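Hey,
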Amino acid sequence: MKLLLLVNSSASSVTARGRVVIQKALAADHEVTLAETSRRGHATRLAQSACGDGTDAIVVLGGDGTLNEAANGLAGSSCALAPLPGGSTNVFARTIGLPNDPIEATGVLLDALAEGSIRRVGLGSVNGRYFLFHVGLGYDAAVVAQVERRDTLKRYLGHPLFAYSAVSTWFRHYEHDQPRFTLHHADGDTVESAFTIVLNTNPYTYLGNRPFDVAPEATLTRGLVVMALKQMTVPHILRLAGRALSKGGPPVSRLRTVDYRADVTELTVTGLGPFPYQVDGDHLGDTERLTFRHDPEVLSLVVPDTRHVARRA
């Protein structure tokens, strides 16, 4: 196959040695070209260009933001997306079953390519931009904004930085005690919220090796899941986090303070003033209106065979 290895060298887990090892492994059985991103939005243009040149798959070594950009360049085409974990959390790569180590994940990816394990999957979009796993509105977007302001520390601190930013944002950077926006569902229902997540896949994120499991119905073959918090107090947040991190307990969807909708294909959100939002972990600023939709089978994705993952574990 003809592959483009698309690398974000600034990503948290990407090293010069790892990039060389991965490129050699891919080149053993495939025709491989290397390209590096240099600025925001660059991965989209590189992916589109490679697809136009007859590339079969774009192998992305970077974080979730780079992966999102590449997916936006490939959506609607026949060129496949092949993720490798190169960031600090790697939500999407881990969600589809890849190991969190980029070199180990390369072996699993090569097995998938050898078996032709490529399938069409659905994506969500917000204001015309596709997302792979989720969009955060309100509080969690404000947390991401605080993390990005300390971007040089992200490579070294990872999850502790997110935890610090979550606490700091709660007390200093976000008004969470009143609604910030209104959700307008296709059936006419409206919900006011200060923190909402629209999910294309589950889990929402990972805390170390533990998945933050909020929406089991969110899969690549179904519509979106919308989870809106109607109240935000410390007890409510702790109860939600406890259920998301537990195994076998009551799901988040049963919390009375959560409005939970599955298989959503359309949604409009209007602000009660400007509110922040993030897409696949990238803070995109403040807005007063968002329009969501779900597009089935819009992206070709290289999917690892879980049997190979188990044998390598």
